[in-house]
Amino acid sequence: MDRHTHHKHLIAPLRAALYDFSELEIRAALEAVCAPNAVFRLAHPLGVLTGTEAYFDEAIAPLAQAWPDLERRDTILMAGTDDDGGDWVGCGGYYVGVSLGPWLGIPPTGHIIHMRFHEFYRFVDGKV
Question: What is the percent of the chain where pLDDT is above 90?
């Protein structure tokens, strides 16, 4: 198996846990695939978070609280090397759920919401 396919396999448990939204499985998958000091660079107002616990607690958990039936729907998965020799896995798709609580100052609508996402994970020595 080439390294890009291997990296896609390494990220698969995280993608699956987010699809079914299982907090325990998401936390375990993050711990397994990420270096302890992994840096997550997120859109404003979330900003830069360091470590999987901060990423889950400050980014993922509040979204799941606002959208209790949260699901992740990937539409594309790709992997490759950048011009500097870095190995990356990119995912794109939608987070889907019913908006039942406020999130980032956005009031709940009571309706289904689709939020598009693009995530890029850089792998070094088999870890994000």
Answer: 96
Cα-based distances in Å from 12 to 48, 58, 111, 117: 23, 22, 29, 17
What's this model's pTM, rounded to 2 decimal places?
A: 0.91
Residue in 72, 76, 117 with CA at minimum distance from that of residue 97: 72
Report the alpha-carbon distance of residue 97 to residue 68 in Å, rounded.
Answer: 7
Q: For residues 89 and 110, what is the distance between their CA atoms, to the nearest angstrom?
A: 34
Single-letter code of the amino acid located at 82: D
Q: For residues 26 and 3, give the distance between their C-alpha atoms in angstroms, rounded to a whole number.
A: 23
The tens digit of pLDDT for each residue in 54-94 reads: 999 999 999 999 999 999 999 999 999 999 999 999 999 99
CB-based contact 88:120 (threshold 8 Å): yes
